[in-house]
Hints:
Layout: E1 3-8, E2 13-17, H1 24-30, E3 39-45, H2 47-50, E4 61-64, E5 67-70, H3 72-99, H4 105-114, H5 117-121, H6 127-132
Antiparallel strand pairs: 1-2, 1-3, 4-5
Helix pairs in contact: 3-4
Amino acid sequence: MPRIIIIDNTGNLWVGPIAxxxxxxxxxEKAVVPHGRTVASWRLGTVEETGRPHRTYRAAARFVDGxxxxxxxxxxxxHRGNMTRVRRDVMRDLMERAELGxxxxxxxxxVVKALDVGVESAGATTPEGLKAKWxxxxxxxxxxx
Length: 145
């Protein structure tokens, strides 16, 4: 199935399916691009031709030379934001559990406090490499191991 690839006026990429018999120009014209952005350009493609944006770092997808690629500095920023959010949520949960008298919380809090968000995301060259740098001490959904 072909996909329509829409690039908005800020360079963000939007990818969606399009019916074989649909008029791509009309589809691009009626595309809903959020946050007051406008459609700058569009093209048709298939997953085999263009690739697929990485699910976790979809907002960092860019269209370069006919392929969907991940802008790694933008993906690192997303990764750091996700880590910061999860770290904050885990600390809040641990503080609540400590107030309720649960034992062993101090050691878990030490592990979370020791995480350096910047270091944990540095040096990755692919989205998979960046995802692999997620700290082993924290599950992606925010539980401390």
